[in-house]
Write a structure and sequence with these properties.
The complex is a heterodimer of chains A (about 300) and B (about 325). In chain A, a hairpin with a 3-residue loop joins strand 2 and strand 3. In chain A, the strands form two sheets. Chain A has a five-stranded antiparallel sheet. In chain A, strands 6-7-9-8 form a four-stranded antiparallel sheet, covered by helices on one side. Chain A is elongated, with a radius of gyration of 31 Å. Chain A has eleven helices and nine strands. Chain B has about 325 residues and is an alpha+beta fold. Chain B has eleven helices and nine strands. The radius of gyration of chain B is 35 Å and the shape is elongated. The chains are: A alpha+beta (about 300), B alpha+beta (about 325). At the A-B interface, helix 4, strand 5, helix 7, helix 9 and strand 8 of A face helix 3, helix 4, strand 4, strand 7 and helix 9 of B. Strand 5 of chain A pairs antiparallel with strand 4 of chain B, so a sheet runs across the interface.
């Protein structure tokens, strides 16, 4: 049973209702603007909700108001309903893409909360993972929200190693060592002797002890690049090595570095191993600044 | 949301539920379903908080919360079905179309992953370069391919990104060509064991080998006639490590420098990954010993004197 007796009457009333709703919304917005006590965020939420309700009310009157719709054959009603639903589905499919991607991330589990990652040029720690977004806190303390569909379709660099159930020392050591450690690629190899080797072993043992003591399952191995000139390279390497030793206490493990390429300058890659991302975020910029002083000082 | 808002919402919902239970003129099934859905909504937050407190593993927490939401959703849809069949059908077709439109993302990655695995393009353990990432493939799963880079950092690339882009395969099969047997030799192989040996030999002939190309630039300060000798010295050392002798080729000259491609060959890609940087270090120190060690002796002496002075001050 339609709300109005004829289609013309329905059209007139609906026009009046539509215009009233529009001006009603404007009036509420104006009044809210005048009330200073209500915060801006709440005002915005109220106006948004009123607009949504107005649209729904308008569509209710359109669907239920015209007698034409009431006398329509049920078959045609079904066809129109399906067509409108599918059209709406196509229009709103973007909203669901993040939801589907969120489920995929949950299933595949490429990252976890607390991981230090690089996604779409944003380096940071994963603070939260919702059904629609992944929230990162970057080294600068800025919060970046990346949609799940962007996460699913982009490269993910994960600097965090999850030890899961592999808490035995040998396995931990195997996971901690970078390929360069296995190949003994340290630049000041001329100073490498039994004492240095023992010291390195001790560092790994201390880190393992700290890990088991704090019942942690992960460690972060963050890498970054720097360029050094050829002249006096060996002296700079020695100074950098001493700086790495100074940062042993801060990171809980001395940073390491190696040559990975050279052309007009020598390209070095630094690797910082740390158990807590907060320490990494706090001391990495400081470490980079000290390196800059050595390299260009 | 603030707690007071939650409290307000809960009070409103409980009031509505009471009204529905005692005064609503609807069918019993609709009343029951409204009450069940309301209870589900009210208990949702406390149950979620309780599980977050009790269960620390995110995976289990997610399973419980999802199961709860699915059950709640089931009752909501049932209620909708009882209220209006048309609305229910419209909503279902809307959801099915909207969600399935997005499954192309997942299907694309799964199909690409399957194609990558079955087409034999590459497999786990191979050294490749794709999407500007070089490393050894660790895992190919539903959505991502996991690659371990040269510095040990793992990178996850969507399967569709790999399938749709250029892949440089440093590891590939080396085909061994066997000389065909002569008629007399073939006749000699009477016993089935000989045939088995032959088949085994043919099957195991596809040995994988890795040839990694590392471009480096050499400064113009190095006389060109010295390059061959220096490289040769380093190649001699690393031949025993890699198992195959490294090689090089001049690519081009640019800004007073020469770019050369160094070919590191090995049967195991992990050996190249482990020893590449050590190789580059040794080569660098052989190429420019004077420039690199500039000021080194003075620095060492200075350090030694400082050490002595500190020691003297202590004593």
């Amino acid at each position: 049973m339609a709300l109005f007796t004829s289609d013309l009457e329905a059209l007139l009333y609906i026009l009046i209702i539509g215009i009233s709703l529009y001006f009603g919304c404007r009036l509420v917005a104006y009044l809210l603007d005048k009330i200073k006590r209500i915060p801006m965020i709440r005002k915005n939420k109220i106006i948004f909700m009123i607009r949504i309700v107005s649209i729904l009310v308008f569509f209710y009157f359109v669907i239920e108001g015209f007698p034409l719709f009431a006398i329509l054959d049920p078959q045609y009603t079904a066809i129109i309903t399906s067509a409108v639903s599918i059209a709406l589905a196509f229009a709103a499919s973007g909203i669901f893409s993040n939801l589907v991607a969120g489920i995929l991330i949950w299933l595949v589990d490429p990252i976890d909360i607390g991981d230090v990652v690089k996604i779409k040029e944003h380096k940071g720690v994963v603070k939260s993972m919702t059904l629609t977004k992944v929230i990162l806190e970057t080294f600068d303390g800025v919060i970046v929200e990346i949609t799940n569909s962007d996460v699913v379709s982009s490269l993910i660099l994960n600097y965090t190693t999850n030890l899961k159930y592999r808490k035995r020392f040998i396995r931990f050591k195997r996971q901690l060592r970078a390929p360069q450690d296995i190949g003994n690629a340290q630049i000041d190899i001329d100073l490498f002797d039994e004492d240095v080797r023992k010291k390195q072993e001790e560092d790994v043992k201390n880190l393992y002890d700290e890990l088991t003591e704090n019942q942690l399952n992960t460690f972060h191995a963050y890498t970054f690049k720097m360029q050094v000139s050829y002249n006096g390279f060996r002296v700079k390497v020695d100074k950098i090595r001493k700086l790495c030793e100074e940062y042993r206490e801060k990171f809980g493990y001395p940073p390491n570095f190696h040559i990975f390429s050279y052309s007009y300058e020598i390209f070095l890659k630094f690797r910082i191993v740390c158990l807590e991302w907060r320490k990494l975020f706090k001391y990495q910029p400081e470490f980079a600044k000290d390196l800059y002083r050595i390299i260009l000082g | 949301m603030k707690k007071r808002y939650y409290a307000l919402i809960y009070i409103i919902i409980i009031a509505i539920l009471f009204w529905v239970f005692y005064l609503a003129p609807w069918d019993q099934i609709i009343i029951d379903l409204i009450i069940i859905s309301g209870i589900f909504y009210i208990l949702r937050k406390p149950i979620s908080s309780m599980f977050s407190y009790l269960v620390k593993t995110r995976f289990y927490r997610a399973i419980v919360i999802t199961a709860y939401n699915i059950t709640w959703g089931f009752f909501l849809f049932w209620l909708l079905f009882e209220l209006s069949n048309e609305l229910f059908i419209a909503l279902i077709s809307f959801l099915v179309t909207a969600v399935s439109l997005n499954f192309r993302l997942i299907l694309n990655n799964i199909t690409s992953g399957t194609l990558l695995l079955t087409a034999g393009q590459f497999e786990v353990g191979d050294l490749i370069e794709t999407n500007d990432v070089q490393g050894i493939i660790q895992e190919i799963n539903l959505n991502y391919t996991k690659i371990k880079e040269f510095d040990g950092v793992s990178v996850q690339i969507p399967n569709s990104e790999i399938y749709g882009s250029t892949v440089v395969k440093f590891t590939h099969e080396k085909f061994k060509i066997f000389e065909p047997l002569k008629k007399e030799e073939f006749k000699k192989k009477k016993y089935y064991k000989d045939y088995l040996k032959l088949i085994n030999k043919i099957l195991s002939s596809n040995i994988k080998t890795t040839i990694y190309v590392k471009p480096v630039e050499i400064l113009g300060t190095l006389p060109p006639e010295n390059l061959e000798g220096i490289l040769s010295e380093v190649f001699d050392v690393y031949e025993s490590i890699f198992g195959l002798r490294p090689d090089y080729a001049v690519d081009t000259t640019t800004f007073g420098r020469v770019r050369i491609n160094i070919y590191l060959k090995s049967d195991k890609p992990s050996i190249i990954l482990n020893y590449l940087d050590a190789f580059l270090r040794d080569l660098l120190f052989k190429l420019y010993p004077d420039t690199l060690f500039e000021g080194w002796e003075t620095y060492k002496k200075k350090q030694f004197i400082e050490k002595l002075t500190k020691g003297g001050q202590k004593t």
